[in-house]
Amino acid sequence: MYHQVCGSEFVSDAWIRHLATGSGSTFYGDDFRITGPYAFRALSMFCQLAHNTIASNLNQFYSSQYFSRFVISPYLFEAQIRSKVDQLLSSMPDSFLLSLRMIRDTTQVNALFSALQTNYKLSGSKDTDNVFVMAKNYDGCSCSLSVNCIRQSSIYDYNTMTILFNVTGFYTGCNVIEALLQSTLECFYNQICINELQKYLLPSPMYSSALKSLSSNQTLKTATIDNLLSNLMVERWNPNVSYEKYYAACSPEYCSYYYNTIADNPEINTYYIVVLMFFLVGGPLSVLKLLISALTKIIVFYVRKSPRQVVPQA
Question: Under a CB-based contact definition with an 8 Å cutoff, are residues 167 and 190 in contact?
Fold first, then answer.
């Protein structure tokens, strides 16, 4: 089951447009109403990429075939299939996160300038027409040194620069993607938090119901987006292993079984043990040595017993 946010209105175009609607109002650059639309657009992109990754890997997995010369036991069949499924589930996130890591590292190494000026701020001089670039700081962390600098995402009063509302679990920082990966969806599991947030979204509130976990795992509410991506935005996997379908697909022509009569017959069991011990202590080799020795003695005996030929001398 995918994480509920991937099928919710919070990744829909309607919600993103709603966040981006300002009715001509002026907001502080780090205001949630400025960075929020881009963060949820990125979250929507992550859901789509995770879905495409899973679909591609499942198509490849389903195209593979399972062969067995004979019908195997249900226990062995389930163990083998579980092993293949576990291997699939562990390999899918690795390939996805490797590609994402490459994109993040490229962005950081090249110090790409954010269009929202969240990492560097431009300022100009009217006298010299020069443009200056200044790295932004988030709670003492400079974007010139780290792309992971973040601060609590909030809604501000532009005139007084006071905080009106904190979006619980959500962060803003040098880079929209990096700040999102460190954020949680805690506020969006709480209807009270969502209703309070709606008061500051113009022009009018958009009713949005809180997320509900599809499983009993309560830690999902405080899990970071980075952790959710490590599971490809999936709350719970439900692999379906059916021995009956395997047996039907195998379609054996006949079935047979072996009945162990040795264990049930004391006389045969004793004979079997004697023969087994005979072979274990080197019985065949001893018999072979005795036969060779006897045969050699017989040959020597007859050679000695045979009359010798006398050759006359001239």
Answer: no
**Strand segments (E) across 139-227:** 141-142, 150-157, 162-173
Two tokens at 182?
């460190």
* Separation between Cα atoms, residue 189 and residue 169, nearest integer Å: 11
Q: Which residue has the higher pLDDT, 195 or 115?
A: 195
Instruction: Compute the distance between CA of residue 137 and CA of residue 156 in angstroms, rounded to an integer.
Output: 18
Rounded Cα distance between 278 and 55, Å, is 62
Q: What are the residue ranges spanned by the domains of the chain?
A: 4-112+180-246, 266-305
- Number of neighbours of residue 273 by Cβ within 10 angstroms: 11
Q: 255: closest CA among 265, 266, 246, 247? A: 247
Q: How far apart are alpha carbons 17 and 37 in whole angstroms?
A: 7
Evaluate if pTM is beyond 0.85.
Answer: no
Q: What letter does residue 2 receive in the DSSP assignment? A: B
pLDDT score recorded for residue 314: 47
Q: Which two tokens stand for residue 225?
A: 């987006």
The pair of structure tokens assigned to 292 is 């060779």
What local confidence, expressed as pLDDT, does residue 283 receive? Answer: 58
For residue 10, the model assigns a pLDDT of 92
pLDDT-based confidence at 111, cuts 50/70/90?
confident
Residues whose CB is less than 8 angstroms from the CB of residue 74 and which lie 6 or more positions away in sequence, other chains included: 243
- DSSP helix/strand/coil, 38: helix
The rounded mean pLDDT for the chain is 81
